[in-house]
Write a structure and sequence with these properties.
Elements (H helix, E strand, L loop, with lengths): L1 H10 L5 E8 L2 E7 L1 H7 L3 H9 L7 H14 L7 H4 L4 H10 L6 E2 L3 E2 L3 H23 L4 H4 L4
Antiparallel strand pairs: 1-2, 3-4
Length: 150
């Protein structure tokens, strides 16, 4: 936890925050995000609706992250609304929930139920970014050096 606090202090200037969503058996599920971007994503009407249906207050993204932690730690049904916290299009999150992960139009980083072409463009950008960052990581750059202001 001390390492995470220190890392948060170093990433804060780049607009990033890292929190442990769940701790279990000596392992941690970490969530690295941009609070401003999350608040903006939660401003989408369908995102707000999905969050409210699941007991979140979409007006406060910080409280939403805390609620997501509670849901993950409760260990009950997996909170599929997590896609909203990862920047997935709300219509794709809705489609995944409504269709039980079936009948999607396309699969990439997530299952697509809405705009296939927009999703494919985003998948391509993610793949390119991942290649570049993995190459830099292998060359010895750490997360502080890889993080960019957003």
């Amino acid at each position: 936890m001390q390492e995470l606090r220190e890392l948060n202090g170093q990433l804060l200037g780049k607009g990033l925050r890292i929190v442990p969503l769940r701790l279990s058996h000596g392992r941690a599920l970490l969530y690295l995000y941009r609070p401003g971007r999350l608040q903006s994503d939660m401003g989408h009407a369908l995102a707000r609706q999905l969050l409210r249906e699941r007991g979140y207050d979409p007006q406060d993204s910080g409280r939403c992250v805390v609620q997501l932690m509670r849901r993950l730690r409760a260990g009950e049904e997996f909170p599929h609304e997590i896609g909203l916290f990862l920047g997935y299009p709300p219509e794709d999150v809705r489609g995944f929930i409504d269709h039980g992960a079936r009948d999607c139009k396309c699969v990439g980083c997530w299952k697509v139920y809405g705009d296939v072409e927009a999703a494919r463009r985003q998948f391509s950008q993610f793949e390119k970014c991942t290649r570049i960052y993995c190459k830099q990581w292998r060359r010895g750059k750490d997360i502080r050096q890889l993080a960019v202001a957003g």
